[in-house]
């Protein structure tokens, strides 16, 4: 039962870590939702903004000036939280691989392997909280920005909504949290 639970938690942690990495690297955290009259599809991410022409499929991207440039708070905070979540999830994944019962590393000391699994679960939990905070921070800021424009009757021609990268970050963080619960609570 313990080995099956470990392998399940490892698979979930691996998939969730990949989701977190993809969410951090991709550039579709915000998408334009007014595509009825639009001839292009706009995506804004943490690192750049891209526009895809709907008729011929040509995609052009504008990199943000610099990582150290003066950016909106939502981008800086989300970048920081997501990168930290990625690093913690990667560290937890490496620790978990060494703590699995099916790996021969420290085979003679099952107590140490159990502690490694528990430590990986705690680290995954911390990473999931940071990733979920970053994703939710960005999503709430997009919603508040949109609500402010609507409440002031301002129409700029482009209406942004949550993009698939934001949803991917939330899914990866949630998966890391579930794997953390499996490793910390259910393994004992």
Task: Lay out the secondary structure.
Layout: H1 2-25, E1 30-32, E2 40-44, E3 48-53, E4 59-63, H2 73-99, H3 110-151, E5 160-162, H4 164-186
Antiparallel strand pairs: 1-2, 1-5, 2-3, 3-4
Helix pairs in contact: 1-2, 1-4, 2-3, 3-4
Major sheet, described briefly? 5 strands, antiparallel
CATH architecture: Up-down Bundle
**CATH fold label:** Butyryl-CoA Dehydrogenase, subunit A, domain 3
Provide the structure class.
alpha+beta
Question: What is the CA-CA span between the terminal residues?
Answer: 11 Å
Family: Belongs to the claudin family.
GO molecular function, one term: structural molecule activity
Subcellular location: Cell junction, Tight junction; Cell membrane
InterPro entries: Claudin, Claudin16, Claudin_CS, PMP22/EMP/MP20/Claudin
Walk me through this protein's architecture.
The chain has 188 residues and is α+β, with helices and mostly antiparallel strands. It has one domain: Up-down Bundle (Butyryl-CoA Dehydrogenase, subunit A, domain 3). It is built from four helices and five strands; from the N terminus they run H-E-E-E-E-H-H-E-H. It has helices at 2-25, 73-99, 110-151, 164-186, and strands at 30-32, 40-44, 48-53, 59-63, 160-162. Strand 2 and strand 3 (48-53) form a beta hairpin. Helix 1 (2-25) runs antiparallel to helix 2 and helix 2 (73-99) runs antiparallel to helix 3 (110-151). It is elongated. The N and C termini lie close together (11 Å). The model has no long low-confidence stretch (mean pLDDT 84). Its main location: other. It comes from Helopsaltes ochotensis. This is Claudin.
